[in-house]
């Protein structure tokens, strides 16, 4: 009796798998393509290279990078970003210095060099792009909300 039950389960599994393969073109996927075909990759958004800093949308948001960083070496031996953004180079480069928080260890002690936990810049900072949002978004930053809540006579 157990053998018959096992055979029936195996046969049902085989039939179900073959039906699923046949119906593979009918499954709606997140990538909007059949499971058995590789869709064409979407175009990569172009990096803005206008050297104009964008306004931050919320407090403590890491600033976005207003220039191209193609080919920048950031590894255990070299951090190309620091060639312009280190404390010693900002006067010559006119680039903003990295925040003092980048020189703090996890215990709040200030270090002479950038902290290891803040060394890899692209963990938080990304290049500015012309990419359209992937999802609809109705986020409003605090400035927009404050402006909207003020009456016309209070605005200046």
From TrEMBL:
It holds the Pfam family NapB. It is found in: Periplasm. The keyword Methyltransferase does not apply. One of its GO terms (cellular component) is periplasmic space. Heme c 2 binds at residues 102, 121, 124-125. Binds 2 heme C groups per subunit. Heme c 1 binds at residues 67, 81, 84-85. Keywords: Electron transport, Heme, Iron, Metal-binding, Periplasm, Signal, Transport. Its main location: periplasm. One of its GO terms (biological process) is anaerobic respiration. Residues 1-20 form the signal peptide. The keyword Ribonucleoprotein does not apply. It comes from the Bacteria. One of its GO terms (molecular function) is metal ion binding. Belongs to the NapB family. PANTHER family: PERIPLASMIC NITRATE REDUCTASE, ELECTRON TRANSFER SUBUNIT (PTHR38604:SF1). Component of the periplasmic nitrate reductase NapAB complex composed of NapA and NapB. Electron transfer subunit of the periplasmic nitrate reductase complex NapAB. Receives electrons from the membrane-anchored tetraheme c-type NapC protein and transfers these to NapA subunit, thus allowing electron flow between membrane and periplasm. Essential for periplasmic nitrate reduction with nitrate as the terminal electron acceptor. This is Periplasmic nitrate reductase, electron transfer subunit. It comes from Parahaliea aestuarii.
């Amino acid at each position: 009796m157990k053998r018959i039950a096992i055979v029936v389960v195996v046969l049902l599994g085989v039939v179900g798998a073959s039906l699923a393969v046949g119906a593979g073109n009918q499954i709606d996927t997140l990538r909007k393509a059949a499971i058995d075909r590789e869709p064409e990759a979407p175009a990569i958004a172009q990096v803005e290279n206008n050297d104009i800093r964008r306004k931050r949308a919320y407090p403590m948001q890491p600033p976005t990078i207003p220039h191209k960083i193609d080919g920048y070496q950031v590894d255990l031996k070299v951090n190309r970003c620091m060639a312009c953004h280190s404390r010693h180079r900002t006067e010559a480069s006119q680039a903003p210095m990295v925040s003092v928080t980048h020189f703090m260890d996890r215990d709040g002690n200030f270090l002479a060099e950038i902290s290891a936990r803040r060394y890899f810049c692209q963990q938080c900072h990304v290049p500015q792009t012309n990419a359209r949002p992937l999802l609809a978004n109705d986020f409003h930053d605090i400035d927009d909300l404050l402006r909207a809540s003020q009456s016309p006579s209070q605005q200046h």
